[in-house]
Design goal:
Elements lengths: L1 H16 L8 H4 L2 H9 L7 H4 L8 H20 L7 H27 L3 H12 L2 H4 L7 H21 L6 H17 L8 H6 L1 H6 L3 H25 L8 H4 L3 H9 L2 H4 L9 H11 L2 H7 L5 H13 L13 H6 L9 H22 L4 H9 L4 E7 L17 E6 L3 H11 L8 E7 L6 H4 L9 E8 L10 H4 L1 H10 L3 E7 L7 H8 L4
Parallel strand pairs: 1-2, 1-3
Antiparallel strand pairs: 3-5, 4-5
Helix pairs in contact: 1-6, 1-7, 3-5, 5-6, 6-7, 6-9, 9-10, 10-13
């Protein structure tokens, strides 16, 4: 029975992996946006993390995780005579890759880490039924990669801890490699291994040959990672004699940036309890009470708890930072027999709701909108309003032709002012597009039948209904029910073509224009 349930949950995970939801900008701008530009030659948009004089993101894990699959895809696609790889194909290839990594490596690691059959089945089902596994783990987050590296580091540590009779050179070398990869991927990685790493110290005493193996593999991986970063950011391959002066060590830059609270203030400061009190409940919901009353206080449990505690020392705290802790804590839970059905019902409702929200509707129209825009001709400028930053790499190399204006939370009056200044005559060949949520009632005065602007004409071009932007919630001004009715009832993302009218229109003409179907 549990195998059938597990197979169904795997299919659910695949469905969400292939849904174009958009959880956070970092899933694009800290990976695919950069690597797609390198592999396919697209003009890519680089955030401050890559353009700073002290860059904080390493190119090493990006190439290792995303670079080679995209390169192989390019060889196969072009080898079959299909021409350049469409960005949509590359996008879903990476999503499928993340699904396979989560399904194969993530679930396999949990199987290895849990010794008893019953607890192992419970852990696998809990992790497989978590919306975090369905959504976050199948998106291209560095946190998702961190989760897999943490899990397999724990597997190798457990093997080394339980067998002090053999040197286990392979396990020692792979652990050293994962250690370097984990740190270059995210500097928070060691926080989840504080206790487990202490457990392999006796094995190093009984089998000291493990130490040179770890040092050799670790230093070699470190040299490769630093060389790749230095070449990427400096534009030339470093020479050995000047390596100590030219080397770009991104983890060090990242740590130096994050220990300065004035830097973190730019991204938002949170109280030290944010992770435990707010972020963790958002991720595992009904599992929170069981952590206190019905859980195994084992290595996995304390690895997750201590990892969260260490991350709480940094004032900028987001839920996705805790992704590695989710499978660790869920794997330590024992579902009590008393009230099990009620708890299981709450667990299902919580994850189905969160899965649909974050896996389907959350900014779900941004990726399809970019794909549609990439197929259009004669577009000069695209304004994005009240959405996440659009991934430029999905424009199929048209970045130099199409100017993307990311207005995010700009007031409505500012939006209209910019559109008025940029839009050409509606009869012009080249045009300006506006991408905005259908729930943005401010635009009703300009696009609806009740009103109109003598300076702008809005012509609807495209709409995607499975789109909800939580940034559009305004409970303070509109109230709870009216806000939910607007954001959910009028869900969707719409693209308008804007232009200045070539002549003054009559009310009947304007009504016919804005009332057109699309």
């Amino acid at each position: 029975m549990w195998r059938r349930l597990y197979l169904c949950l795997v299919l659910v995970r695949l469905y969400f992996a292939l849904s174009p939801s958009y959880i956070h900008p970092d899933e694009h701008f800290q990976g695919p946006e950069i690597i797609a530009g390198e592999v396919f030659g697209y003009p890519s948009y680089k955030t401050w993390e890559f353009t700073s004089s002290q860059p904080v993101r390493s190119i090493f894990p990006f190439w290792l995780i995303y670079g080679w699959p995209l390169t192989v895809l390019k060889w196969i696609w072009e080898g079959l005579g299909y021409g350049p790889v469409p960005p949509s194909i590359a996008f879903y290839t990476l999503r499928l890759l993340m699904f396979l990594l989560s399904f194969i490596l993530g679930d396999w690691a949990i199987h290895e880490l849990i010794p008893t059959i019953n607890q192992r089945r419970t852990a696998i089902i809990l992790v497989a039924s978590s919306y975090v596994t369905w959504t976050f783990q199948t998106h291209t987050f560095s946190n998702s990669i961190e989760t897999l590296v943490v899990l397999w580091s724990l597997v190798l540590i457990q093997r080394l801890r339980d067998n002090t009779q053999d040197t286990q050179a392979s396990a020692s070398g792979v652990l050293a490699f994962l250690g370097v990869l984990g740190v270059f991927n995210r500097i928070t990685f060691p926080a989840f291994l504080v206790i487990p790493l202490a457990q392999i110290v006796p094995g190093l005493y009984y089998k000291p040959l493990r130490i040179p193996v770890m040092l050799f593999v670790g230093l070699l991986t470190l040299a490769i990672a630093i060389t790749m970063d230095t070449e990427y950011y400096s534009g030339h391959r470093p020479h050995l004699r000047e390596f100590h002066k030219d080397a770009v060590i991104t983890p060090w830059n990242n740590l130096a940036y994050n220990v300065d609270e004035s830097n973190l203030a730019k991204h938002g400061l949170h109280p030290f309890w944010q992770h435990f009190v707010a972020n963790l409940p958002q991720l595992i919901g009904p599992a929170i009470p069981l952590l206190f009353v019905s859980s195994l206080k084992n290595t996995l449990f304390w690895s997750g708890v201590i990892g969260i505690a260490v991350l709480s020392a940094f004032r900028h705290q987001e839920p996705r930072f805790l992704l590695p802790a989710v499978p660790l804590l869920l794997s330590s839970i024992k579902v009590p027999r008393r009230g099990a059905r009620w708890w299981a019902g709450a667990w299902v409702v919580f994850n189905v709701f969160a899965g649909i929200l974050f896996g389907i509707y959350h900014q779900g129209g941004a990726v399809p909108a970019q794909t549609w825009i990439a197929q259009q001709d004669n577009i000069d400028t695209v304004f994005w309003w009240k959405t996440y930053s659009p991934p430029r790499w999905l424009l199929d190399g048209k970045n130099h032709e199409v100017k993307t204006m990311d207005l995010m939370g700009t007031p409505g009056e500012g939006l209209i002012a910019q559109l008025t200044g940029d839009s050409a005559c509606e009869s012009a060949v080249n045009g300006t597009l506006l991408v905005a949520p259908s729930s943005a009632t401010f635009l009703d005065a300009f696009t609806g039948e009740a009103g109109g602007s003598s300076e702008l004409v809005f012509s609807p071009q495209w709409q995607y209904r499975r789109h909800i932007g939580l940034d559009d919630l305004d409970f303070g001004d509109d109230g709870v029910w009216p806000t939910l009715h607007r954001v959910i009832g009028r869900r969707g993302l719409t693209i308008w073509r804007t232009g200045r009218p070539s002549r003054v229109r009559t009310p009947e003409e304007f009504s016919n224009l804005t009332g057109s179907s699309f």
